[in-house]
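Go through the following before class.
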Amino acid sequence: MKKNWPIFLASLLLLLGGIWAGYEYWLAENAGRTVSGKQLNQNEKSTGGLISDQQLAVYESQGLNPFGESTAKQKMTDAKYQEYIHGMAHQKVQAKEKWGFYQIHPKRIEWLLAGLDEVDLSHEDVYRRILTKWKHGDFSTADKDHNAIWKLQGGTIGKATDVFTLKEEKEYMNKISE
């Protein structure tokens, strides 16, 4: 038993180090992306969480995508699609906790839809179904759309419970722009 002690201790330390590294990675990936805590990602901060046609034009002139980031359509991943759709869904849904926010805008939806024809993704059908509905102004199942993406991301906190009424959405958007 005494001979196994160093192996056990080394294994335990490796396990704890892996957990800590995973936590640090999660923190880095989610830094600045809370809504309940009123902290938005850097690009959305510049517009108070809201996006205008003028800001979209600035993004385009800087070679950025409609979300203010450098990721091109050809480089989009499942993780990026999930981040963008999830963040936009927050505008339409009730949930106790929300991390991330991107205002819904037709140019963003069109850009994401066009990108689906340029990359191979594991969950393309889910993204296309959601974005096509949204393109046509159908947000009646935004809570289910949110939760579909949330589940793909391994969500455990922040499940959408319903769709905002127009009044609730307006109040939420006012809170975001504070």
About this structure: Confidence is low (pLDDT under 50) at residues 25-48.
